[in-house]
What we know:
The chain is mostly helical. The protein is 63% helix and 0% strand. The relative contact order is 0.16.
Amino acid sequence: xxxxxQPNPSLAAMTFDQMxxxxxYEGAYPTRERAEEAVRTVLAALGRQLVGDERVDxxxxxxxxxxxxxxxxxxxxxxxxxxxxxxDLAARARTTPAIARWDxxxxxxxxxxxxxxDLLTRTLRQLPDGYALLFGQAELRRPQxxx
Length: 147
């Protein structure tokens, strides 16, 4: 019999506790609880922006607890730009945009590693401008149609 192909065979599975410790390190958070708060708020916000196969595949790449947070959200009808995402997160979390941006960067850097390059590229193609930087990637300009 043949093994079934895995979406990210080179990445070792990460538990939710390991994910929290990685986010705690990335964000220099003083406690595990603060890292968990950041993970839950950022993944909930991301869950409101993603749809389709990328949403499903990203959920499969995450630890179960993180995947449930991502998929528990109903996608918004209007997609936000990267900066709009940060401002919306700040308003919902009742914090400053600077803190929301910090939290977003710490969490999405770990999510990017778990997703792997192929899924990350597909996810960024689905999202409006400004998300690549949030995931710790270079923001490449999309070609503009000729006028």
